[in-house]
Amino acid sequence: MTKRWSDEDIEKTLTKMPAVEDSRSKNDLMEAIEAKSGGQLQMRSSKKKKRAFVVPSIATAAAILLIAILLPSLFNQGLPISSDENAATDDMAVTSDDGDEEMTDNAGNTAEDTPLNEPESEDAGVATDNGDDGEAAIMESLPSAYPVFSVEVITRESDFVVGVSPYIQDSEEVLGDAVLSTFHTNDPTSNGAFAALESVTVDEGEAALMFSEESLVSLTSSEHQIIESFFDEIFTLYGISTYRFETPEGPGIQFGQVGEVIEADVTEENRGYYLAEEEGQTLLLSARAAGADMTGGNGELLDLETLISRMTDEEIEDDFFHPVTDTGLTILSVSMSADEVTLTYEAGPEVTPEDRELFYQAFRYAVNTYGIDELTLIDDESGETIVFTFEGGTMLVEDK
């Protein structure tokens, strides 16, 4: 009975056999074997060739798998693909058309995504490189903010005058809303008559005041006088020269002892602001309210340059109001154009931040009636610059 040799038996038998030493090279051994059994070797060679066909197939499959893994990343990185890889890709197309189409779609999507992202990068670069331009564009698109003023009634002998606080605490984006808020927060009547003021509409220097009821009919004589000054001072600051009253019944309102009033004008133009003390606080008092001279030798209203000189005149002798130079700041030069005014000043050694603010606001309020667009104040020593902006005879809240 023939014994069946297993791989383990063969390995043990060969291990026990002595090693054969031969000085001949591999080629010499192959030639000797071929000489002894050429035909048999040829047959074995043929068998090997058939088996060798499997090796390239496995290698090709491995190459295809490797390319399938690497190809998308090559497209993403924009790297060139060698001709060998292209050939392997062709082989892959023959064996697996679906896989090729999938990779082509992925590559196409990647290529299409790149141009879509480029404009976003360019926009971001413009915003970064041109930050100032972007900020200017944003500032231009924002609505203007108008101040809400704070006023105080000052008693002067038997008269009542209205002073304005130099400090602006609030603002509104709509001019009419700013006027409305100023009336609501500074109502001088004992019965809260301005609570009935529902809306204010401003158009080209004219204001329409809409009251929900006849709330001004029972004013005292003092309140009537105060409200008239109240209207003059507030409307001047907002560039309003004419105002009219309306109620749900129609135009007009019963205005105290005067009777029905439909429309009225600001009594007279203002020229300049001065300093006045009232109960421990410093207010800005208009030249109109203070009774200061507002005309030149020819009877005409003061021009801006002369007005600035009057406001800083240290020879003013009045117990009620004082020149702006009482703050310790002095005007050195004045430069004017059609829509801009620049004041260069110097400050004394004991000037406080409060003094500076009074000085700035006095001129800010004063030039408001001249229809300019910008007022610039420059400290001659430090170079510090303050710029105030205006629009249509109305000061704006934002400082540059």
Automatic annotation (TrEMBL):
The chain crosses the membrane at residues 52-75. It comes from Bacillus selenitireducens (strain ATCC 700615 / DSM 15326 / MLS10). Residues 81-132 are annotated as: Disordered. Keywords: Membrane, Transmembrane, Transmembrane helix. This is GerMN domain-containing protein.
